């Protein structure tokens, strides 16, 4: 009779689920739970773009071997497949949590912050366990990667201890209850799992972030500049709608901008696979931190150019007309959705000319995404025009059609060379 009384208070749907559970063996129930955790871990690992760093070009996924060049030496990403000898096969959940949250290896030694544990420390234990479950489910790849080549004296654990003491703050993300759930989720994705600070934050001479405000900075070892996500003069989106932000992050292109270089890679490998809810949450957060220009601001009046500057810019005009005008237009207007406008383009007029120089050198390629499956790309010109001509044409487009930026020298073009991202 007690059982009948209990079942009277259970809804039919709940009773059906309960009955199925009784019929399934305990092992099947555990497998279902494990499968859900692994699936969630796969999603989180994609959001964190783990494969992007832990896979070398043409190599086995997650087997490591990619070389990351920094001013402090060359770091080689490790094998994180579940191989017992060369990967994470003998790691435990606790070992993995210690790496993400505390920046320590399995043997307790300090990890170098080229692995972004300074951001990953914000990841929750539940998410970390799910990510580890996914990595454990991968095919084990026996691949021994070469050791790091760290310059002296940075190969000293005591110096790394001091660095951590000064610059590393351990702690899981804590929600701001004065903000919405979407804002907090977006903050968690941007500041923690997505580790946007790793690129979009200025760093000091020790490679430590100078703040957590995503104010922009040079990406170490790539010769690219990650623009400020706050300033409306760079990549701040405070004046955009959430729909426009979502479009750029998911498709790599919208009516305002096109992603290229390292950001295009992130969109292609990671961001386009986020759920609509997470994409919207990121947009809400990024919109909230972006500054807005005062509606009463008057456009800056461009000062008269000295004769020598006018002559220097004039050298770039024929280069533009020969190599650029057919796509970007006589007035730098571009073609909406195909070729970006150069007039008023924030990438062109940013204080750092590196991204524009590298686009001319190596070409500009938006990512191929579900939202933009056949992107139009710009071919490389480094084998067609000389460094001095690149300097002329970049200077020209930075100071024409109402644009105003610094001049570029051939030496800056040469210094912008390096490995492609």
Give structural attributes.
421 residues, mainly alpha, two-stranded antiparallel ribbon
Question: How would you describe the overall organization of this protein?
Answer:
The model is unreliable at 1-29 (pLDDT under 50). This protein starts with a helix and ends in a 6-residue tail after the last helix. The strands form two sheets. A three-stranded antiparallel beta sheet has the order 1-2-3, with no helix packed on it. The chain is globular. 44% of the residues lie in helices and 4% in strands. By secondary structure, the protein is mainly alpha-helical. Helix 11 packs across helix 13 (276-289) and helix 14 packs across helix 18 (387-397). The longest helix is centred in the N-terminal third of the chain and has 22 residues, at 26-47. The protein has helices at 2-8, 12-23, 26-47, 50-53, 93-102, 117-120, 125-137, 157-167, 181-193, 197-200, 242-251, 261-269, 276-289, 307-323, 325-328, 346-349, 354-362, 387-397, 410-415; strands at 67-70, 73-76, 149-150, 217-219, 224-226.
Unreliable residue runs: 1-29
User: How are strands sequenced across the largest beta sheet?
Assistant: 1-2-3
CA(first)-CA(last) distance: 70 Å
The string of secondary-structure elements, in order, is: HHHHEEHHHEHHHEEHHHHHHHHH
Instruction: Tell me, rounded to a whole number, the average pLDDT.
Output: 89
**Annotation field: number of helices:** 19
Q: Report the helical percentage.
A: 40-55%
- Derived from helix and strand composition plus strand pairing, the structural class reads mainly alpha
**What about the largest sheet?**
3 strands, antiparallel
Rounded Rg:
25 Å
Number of strands: 5
Q: What share of the residues does DSSP label as strand, in percent?
A: under 5%
What form results from the Cα inertia axes?
globular
């Amino acid at each position: 009779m007690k059982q009948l009384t209990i079942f009277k208070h259970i809804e039919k749907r709940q009773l059906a689920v309960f009955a199925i559970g009784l019929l399934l063996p305990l092992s099947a129930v555990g497998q279902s739970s494990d499968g859900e955790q692994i699936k969630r871990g796969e999603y989180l690992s994609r959001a964190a773009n783990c494969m992007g760093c832990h896979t070398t070009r043409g190599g086995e996924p997650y087997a490591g071997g990619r070389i990351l060049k920094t001013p402090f030496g060359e770091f080689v990403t490790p094998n994180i497949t579940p191989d017992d000898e060369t990967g994470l096969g003998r790691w435990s959940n606790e070992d993995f949590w210690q790496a993400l949250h505390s920046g320590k290896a399995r043997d307790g030694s300090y990890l170098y912050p080229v692995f972004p544990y300074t951001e990953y420390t914000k990841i929750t234990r539940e998410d970390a366990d799910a990510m580890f479950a996914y990595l454990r489910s991968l095919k084990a790849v026996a691949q021994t990667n070469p050791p790091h080549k760290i310059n002296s004296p940075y190969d000293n654990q005591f110096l790394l201890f001091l660095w951590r003491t000064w610059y590393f703050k351990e702690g899981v993300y804590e929600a701001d209850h004065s903000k919405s759930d979407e804002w907090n989720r977006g903050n968690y994705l941007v500041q923690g799992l997505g580790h946007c600070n790793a690129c979009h934050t200025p760093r000091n001479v020790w490679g430590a972030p100078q703040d957590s405000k995503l104010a922009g900075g040079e990406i170490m070892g790539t010769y690219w500049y990650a623009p400020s996500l706050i300033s409306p003069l760079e990549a701040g989106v405070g004046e955009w709608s959430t729909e426009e932000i979502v479009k750029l992050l998911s498709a790599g292109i919208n009516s305002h901008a096109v992603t290229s270089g390292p950001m295009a890679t992130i969109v292609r490998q990671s961001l386009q696979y986020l759920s609509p809810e997470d994409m919207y949450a990121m947009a809400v957060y990024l919109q909230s931190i972006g500054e807005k220009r005062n509606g009463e601001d008057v456009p800056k009046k461009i000062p008269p150019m000295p004769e020598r500057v006018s002559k220097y810019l004039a050298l770039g005009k024929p280069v533009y007309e020969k190599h650029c005008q057919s796509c970007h237009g006589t007035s730098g207007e571009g073609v909406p959705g195909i070729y970006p406008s150069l007039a008023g383009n924030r990438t062109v007029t940013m204080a750092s000319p590196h991204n524009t120089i590298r686009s001319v050198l190596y070409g500009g390629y938006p990512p191929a995404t579900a939202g933009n499956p056949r992107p139009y790309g710009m071919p490389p010109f480094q084998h067609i025009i000389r460094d001095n001509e690149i300097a002329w044409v970049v200077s020209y487009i930075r100071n024409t059609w109402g644009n105003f930026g610094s001049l570029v020298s051939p030496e800056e073009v040469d210094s912008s060379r390096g490995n492609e991202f």
